[in-house]
Amino acid sequence: MMNPPVVKPKPVRVRFAPSPTGPLNIGGVRTALFNWLFAKHKGGSFLLRIEDTDRERSKKEYEESIKDSLAWLGLLWDEFHRQTDRIDRYAFHLQKLIDEDKVYHCFCIEEELEHERGAQLSQGIPPIYSGHCRGLAKEERDERLKTERAVLRLKVPEKEISFHDLIRGKVSFDAKLIGDFIIAKSLQEPLYNFAVVVDDFEMQISHVVRGEEHIANTPRQILIQEALGFEGLTYAHLPLILGPDRKKLSKRDLAKSLLDYRDEGYLPDAILNFLVLLGWHPREDREVISLEEMTKEFSFDRVQKGGALFNPEKLGWLNGTYIRGLDDEVLVRMLLPFVPKDWSSDSEFLKKIVSAEKERLKTLAEFQDRAKFFFTLPEYDASVLIWKKATKKETKENLREVHEMLGKLSDNDFGEKAKEVLMPYAELKGRGAVLWPLRVALSGKSASPGPFELIEILGKKETLQRISQAFEKFTA
């Protein structure tokens, strides 16, 4: 007896298909990431497809921005496609449906359709097209096409449409509640749902991974697939991303592009880590996970159905975690676009500053504001120098003593010896009374790295000069 033939599973091929009508936002990036992770986990292919059939709103600069965003994150695509390069393919399949009498030309104008929808809604009937033009005779249709514009509507059968969603299980729709819908304005103007079906078939897409808001498109696309005789696909609809108020992200939040986050100093690894946890969780409960670990563990059975909470504070915390994990030299290179050019003239000095400040950073863009006092001492009031209940006289005396003790140290071991020399005096007079005014004198700020870190970075000459300036504030 012969063994049955071994049926090999279809290779995994997924697509991220944004429209270039605006910059790529966080929601779109999350969709791209989940597609990319699934493809790489399965050893499959990740396609980038620009859906630009809306020619009025599509812009080349947005297409470039989308590609730049994905490349910055490291989500590189295996194939690239653009819908406007494929108009002939859509026309071919549309003509096939016309020839097989699976679509019909509809001459109804918008005013008529609005009146029809209004009447249906007033009676509590779902607003679907009545099928007015479905029964037109061929002769009448051909005659009217000579002088009138017409759209193409799919002949929708009365049936239940079901599909298995990898996240939600079985999902069903009643086709009667959809009605005959428009799939193209003309042979050269396919609409979204039709172009998507043709693309997915010809590009051999195996899985469609997209946001929950696209569920309503799925039955229409299945109906088109069936009319064209195409094999069905596997679907996974990702949960909505909710704002801190647990409502769908606002237009303001969605208006912020991924490149805005890049320009604010967020790291690619932190963005990816943050986004993967918006709806998916690893096997072990942990907050920090690398792209390599995500890829190894990713599966749709660990994707939640409910909305995922977008928490900006968590993104800041994660970004700070990744910053602290960077080697100082690497961090210096990453900070260069965020600081004045003259700051990089002394790389060792900048490296020392980075080492002192990195524990406090949440974004790269914060560094300039935090570190500028190392280069230019800000103006501050003498009252800031005084520690709690210490007096002006005590503060002035402590600054004088500190200046004198530090002045006796040599340049070579200044940073190393400063703590050894000053701490006995600080213990005698009170740590706060001695070290607080010293730190303020060196930074001009009430919050900064500790005084001995500052001394190590600033060196003897600058340290003594800044203490003298603080002392003079009391004299003035």
State the gist of this model.
This protein has 476 residues and is of the alpha/beta class. It has helices at residues 26-41, 60-73, 87-99, 110-122, 138-144, 192-202, 217-228, 251-255, 258-263, 268-276, 291-297, 312-324, 328-335, 347-357, 366-371, 392-407, 414-429, 431-443, 451-475; strands spanning 13-16, 45-50, 79-82, 103-106, 151-154, 160-165, 169-174, 182-186, 189-190, 207-211, 234-238, 241-242, 308-309.
- Rounded Rg: 33 Å
The N- to C-terminal Cα distance equals 106 Å
Category from helices, strands and their pairing: alpha/beta
- Strand fraction: 5-15%
> Stretches where pLDDT falls below 50 for ≥5 residues?
none
Number of helices: 19
Largest sheet: 4 strands, antiparallel
Strand order of the largest sheet: 4-5-8-9
Averaged pLDDT, please?
93
In helices, the fraction of residues equals 40-55%
The coarse silhouette is elongated
Strand segment tally: 13
Structural notes for this entry:
By secondary structure, the chain is α/β, with parallel strands linked by helices. The chain is 46% helix and 12% strand. It is built from 19 helices and 13 strands. It has helices at 26-41, 60-73, 87-99, 110-122, 138-144, 192-202, 217-228, 251-255, 258-263, 268-276, 291-297, 312-324, 328-335, 347-357, 366-371, 392-407, 414-429, 431-443, 451-475; strands at residues 13-16, 45-50, 79-82, 103-106, 151-154, 160-165, 169-174, 182-186, 189-190, 207-211, 234-238, 241-242, 308-309. The protein has a 4-stranded antiparallel beta sheet with strand order 4-5-8-9. A 3-stranded parallel beta sheet has the order 1-2-3. A two-stranded antiparallel sheet has the order 6-7. Helix 2 links the parallel strand 2 (45-50) and strand 3 (79-82). Helix 10 packs across helix 12 and helix 16 (392-407) packs antiparallel against helix 17. It is elongated, with a radius of gyration of 33 Å. The mean pLDDT is 93.
